[in-house]
Design a protein that fits this description.
The protein is of the alpha/beta class and 495 residues long. A hairpin with a 5-residue loop joins strand 6 and strand 7. The protein is elongated. The strands form two sheets. Strands 3-1-2-5-4-8-9-10-11-12-13 form an eleven-stranded mixed β-sheet, with helices on both faces. The chain has a two-stranded antiparallel ribbon with strand order 6-7. It holds the Pfam family PAF-AH_p_II. Keywords: Hydrolase, Lipid degradation, Lipid metabolism, Membrane, Transmembrane, Transmembrane helix.
């Protein structure tokens, strides 16, 4: 995976910072340079700020413009005094120094804040295929989401699916695309349109309890996928990976991971779980907002989590059924006949990882499972027959003491060879896109860096999928060990 540039400033933003800094420091230049420096920096500021006003300013640069306005007011006062023939009043250096220092700090605060909360710069996929993306939407009857002969109770269907009983599912696909996509417009992050992206970004901020402006860079981002690109003509049909996001998460939360897999010949189908995701924007304009809330009571919350997990697992099974029709050519569209639904993995992050385990346990159509740091809610009462890869953060004193024992029981009771990869320096959000746009605080996004966390998650996942879905030769344990500590769970024992 190629490393992103990490750039956080556009050209107008960089010029605004430069102009503000020169204007603030002009007071300390030799007399003959003060006027030209103030005039030149002021002109630069006017131009760059005008461009930002037209293209959409970011909140991080409010302090920069504010500091420039204060410095400009003092410079303008001196200029007006000279124009009227009066001698400008200059404060003593010791009186002016604190104000200048504060203004410099405000100017510096702008790019620092932009570095902490950047517009996501997605790392380039490394596979041989360009990446395309499409979003599908289905209305799934409750009966289609039943597990075997067991259906959900009427009140559960009503609560989860709304008044009509049919559950709308929005699924985004990332897939290997044909050549010649170099100049095509890239898809926005978080939605089909920038308006949808803004809606989802605001909902994620509200769900997370942070001010919405902190995430205003997300709707500005562009991914590497091309909307509606033709499917690659060579190499297919392609294995399928279904993905379930974390609690309150949205289908796009692992876009970098999905694009990397797609560039290597996988079709990734990520699900928006309605009334669980922070916001699901339907094609008719309706917005379905999350209804998942914790009570604070551990026993009640665990029961709720089990119910949410089972609902998600039902969604995953329903999506697979729809994708089988696409793969067999039974549904029209450019992906018809291009999906190999005989080779399917199910993956998820956090509670989505638990849903992946439950879905695989209940549906033999899934051939492998990838659990990205997911606490195994609802996995009691049966074993998972398919091979499992569980990626976990570093287990420390703040980790739920039940997490590792419960996950170990799931892996040890399985019928296949299962793997647990503990990634040094990882936190819970390491396994998502969050390191690309949140401050690099180890307790929040881990200490692997903005792009290394993405690379680690994608490379480990791909090594596992290549071995389990494609039968690629090689030592899977060694491939995983390049990214952390590997524990192998074999039927009848641990190695």
């Amino acid at each position: 995976m190629t490393v992103s540039t990490g750039a956080t400033l556009s050209a107008p933003e960089a010029l605004t910072v430069l102009g503000a800094l020169v204007l603030v420091l002009a007071r300390w230049l030799p007399r003959r340079w003060r006027g030209p420096a103030a005039l030149g920096s002021g002109a630069l500021l006017v131009g760059s700020v005008a461009v930002l006003a037209l293209t959409g300013p970011r909140w991080q640069f409010a302090s920069v413009v504010g500091a420039a306005a204060v410095a400009g007011a003092f410079a303008l006062a001196g200029w007006r005094a000279r124009r009227s023939g009066r001698r400008p009043r200059r404060a003593k250096w010791w009186a002016a120094l604190p104000g200048s220092a504060v203004c410099v700090a405000l100017v510096v605060a702008g790019p620092v804040a932009a570095w902490a909360f950047p517009v996501p710069d997605f790392p380039g996929p490394t596979g041989r295929f360009p990446v395309g993306t499409r979003t599908l939407e289905w209305s799934v009857p409750a009966a289609d989401r039943a597990r075997g002969k067991k259906t959900y109770r009427a009140e559960e269907r009503s609560r989860a699916d709304g008044e009509k009983g049919a559950r709308p599912l929005v699924v985004q696909l990332w897939y290997p695309a044909g050549r010649g996509q170099g100049d095509a417009r890239r898809a926005p992050y978080l939605g089909r349109t920038e308006a949808e992206a803004r809606t989802v970004s605001a909902a994620l901020a509200d769900y997370s309890g942070v001010p919405g402006f902190l995430l205003d860079g997300l709707p500005r981002a562009r991914t590497h996928a091309v909307p509606g690109a033709p499917v690659a003509e060579d190499g297919g049909p392609f294995p399928v990976v279904l993905f379930s996001p974390g609690l309150g998460g949205v289908r796009t939360q692992n876009t970098a991971w999905a694009e990397e897999l797609a560039s290597h010949g996988y079709v990734v189908a990520a699900v928006d779980h309605p009334y669980d995701a922070a916001a699901v924007v339907l094609s008719d304009g309706r917005i379905l907002r999350t209804r998942v809330t914790a009570t604070g009571d551990p026993a009640k919350d665990e029961a709720l989590a089990v119910g949410w997990t089972r609902t998600r697992a039902a969604d995953l099974r329903a999506v697979l059924s729809r994708l089988e029709r696409v793969g067999s050519g039974g549904a029209d569209g450019p992906l018809a006949g291009r999906l190999d639904t005989g080779r399917v993995a199910v993956a998820g992050h956090s509670i989505g990882g638990a849903a992946a385990l439950v879905a695989a346990r209940e549906d033999a159509r899934f051939d492998a499972v990838v659990d990205l740091d997911g606490y195994p809610h609802g996995t009691d009462g049966g074993r998972v027959e398919q091979p499992v890869l569980a990626l976990t953060q570093e287990i420390g004193p703040d980790t739920d003491p039940d997490y590792l024992p419960r996950l170990t029981r799931v892996l040890e009771s399985g019928a296949a060879v299962n793997y647990r990869l503990t990634v040094p320096g990882a936190a819970h959000l390491t396994f998502t896109d969050a390191p690309l746009y949140l401050p690099p605080v180890p307790g929040v996004v881990g200490s692997l860096g903005r792009t290394e966390s993405i690379r680690t998650t994608a490379d480990a996942t791909r090594a596992f999928l290549d071995a389990t879905l494609r039968g690629s030769p090689g030592d899977l344990r060694s491939a995983l060990a390049a990214h952390g500590e590997v524990t192998v769970h074999r039927p009848g024992g641990v190695r």
